Amino acid sequence: MADRTRWWWLLTMLCAINVQSRCIEWPPDFQDSYAAADEILLVEANTLENSDIDFHVNKVRYSVLERFKGVDDHDNYAYNSSETGHHIRMKPGGKYILFLLKEDRVASICRGSREYTPDDPFLHKLRKNSS
Question: What superkingdom heads the lineage (predicted)?
Fold first, then answer.
């Protein structure tokens, strides 16, 4: 019984350390950017398999839908493109192996950026529609 208790304690501590490290790695404005429906520009996307779509020429803006447990086992944002209907799961500035269009299971490596000016008409339109 003592061994079982010891293993349970060790497992609990490892989980706590894992949760704490995940919290530390997020930027300070993480929740703020999520709440404000932040936007990114897809600046890099390399299709790995099962896709006939050229994402290199498809540099589109995405808006935040929700946080969720990503397919790469990291907490991510979910993004949806209002221009193409594609879904992308990533944290702005991060680089992930992920799936475009969940039902197709298309694996891609993508990178995003939040380099926008405050007067960007696209951002203004999104903010107006979300209020």
Answer: Bacteria
Which of 110, 125, 122 has its CA nearest to residue 77?
110
Q: Is it the case that residue 8 has pLDDT exceeding 50?
A: yes
Expressed as residue numbers, the domain containing 109 is 37-130
Residue 52 lies in a domain: yes
Q: Is residue 71 part of a domain?
A: yes
Q: What is the pLDDT of residue 35?
A: 34
Task: Give the helix, strand, coil percentages of the chain, each rounded to 5.
Answer: 35, 30, 35
* pTM listed for this prediction: 0.22
As a whole number, mean pLDDT of residues 64-92 equals: 43
Output the CA torsion 42→93→65→117 (10° steps): -70
Please tell me the distance from the alpha carbon of residue 92 to that of residue 78, in angstroms, as a whole number.
Answer: 10
| Structure-token pair, residue 56 | 């290199």
More confident residue, 112 or 5: 5
Query: With contact defined as beta carbons under 8 Å apart, do 100 and 87 qualify?
Result: yes
Q: How many domains, in total, are found in the chain?
A: 1
pLDDT at 9 over 50: yes
